[in-house]
Amino acid sequence: MNTNLSKSVQYGFGLLSIAIISRWTSGNAVFTAPEAFLRYGFIGTVSFSAAGALAFLALIPIITRIRSSEESSSFPGIMASRLSEPALKWMKRVLLLAIFFGMTVMGFAAGILVFPLGTPVPVGMSLFFLFGFLAAIFFRLKWFTRFSMLKVGILFLIMIMILVHAYMLEGIEVVYNGIRLYHPYLLYAEWEILPLLLTAFTIAMLGHLLLDLKMWNMLLKSKREKLRLGLSMTGLIWSTIPFSFSMIALSAIYKGGFQNFYSVFEKIFLRYEHFTITILLIFILMVIFFETFLSQIHSLYVLYDRNDLKLNKHMWGILLLFVAAIPCLTYLFLISLLDLFFISGVFFAAALPVILQILWSRKKKGLLMPAAVLIGTLSGWTFLFFGEGPNSILIGCGSSLIALLIGWFAENREAVHHD
Length: 419
Prior knowledge:
This protein is mainly α. It has a single domain, classed as Sodium/glucose cotransporter (Up-down Bundle), CATH 1.20.1730. The chain contains 19 helices and no strands. The radius of gyration is 22 Å and the shape is globular. The termini are far apart. 44% of the residues are buried. The chain crosses the membrane at residues 12-31, 37-60, 94-115, 121-141, 148-168, 188-211, 231-254, 274-294, 315-334, 340-360, 367-386, 392-410. It comes from Cytobacillus firmus DS1. This is Transport protein. Keywords: Membrane, Transmembrane, Transmembrane helix.
């Protein structure tokens, strides 16, 4: 991936919006929002969709400040200029964990996709990871990722087709009456939990955006004057994806109950008279997820050089982790995609204050930065074990912020003593 601004074509706001939406056409956009809808009701999907828009809008002042300094043309370069050598080494591991979480989400989404075909979700995950890593190891990635722009149009085409089939042919009133009969709680708006969900989702998503190398590459290659409009458009357009798939899930359960979240999407894909349509929809969505997964591996090669002997040595171990260990863990602990969002969201929330501190302050930072991420993540995960996911995200972010403040006071105190 070329990260040099001067040698690459700059994005206008239209191309920037399409490229970013293509990058974030992930399992969270397609499957996590509907699961949030089924767990928290209408407020769940509204807050999830709105949080995505707010996260993209929050990027505007951050990237504007970075672009005005022009100190580096890549995010790893920015970190290298503002972190000590040991701190940079550990923050690279933070970025590596962010990439791993992104890969896991895509594998989980692929497992849900093949569930209607009679394949267990963990098995689908393993097969997806196996093919994805083998493709990355033995083939060049550029030939596949060049179609990333096309997948945005295809995704919206699929969304519209499924929505039209579900609501226009069967009738909006019929679906509404069915939901009122079988699942009235989904239509009840618990406004009191909206601030909590909206804040937690926004913090987690913004942290994820700031830890994504491909995202930084696109933002640093864009025309400065187009950033504000491009990110605003991206947020508004992207927010329609999770909301639309939530409405698609709603149309699948109006005739009765459902066993679990997987069975909801099983009903969606198996409702068509011709099984060929089901296969085609699953195949197209699988290709879309596969391209996003390969972009994550591409980010891995940006973080660590593709020809790095250490990376090549550990690649088979990483393959084993994803093909065997992660699917087994999701099966043993009955983790859903929304649960995975909260687990990774705690990590991204803990990293958010640290990344903002690195970007905002031009002083060299030490090991306090990765230590704050660790403290926030462990605090949030501990709370997640006993409490609710949205609260754990706030705990993770707050703990990381407190660690940074304590470190800042300690540094100032030491400086005063030296004076």
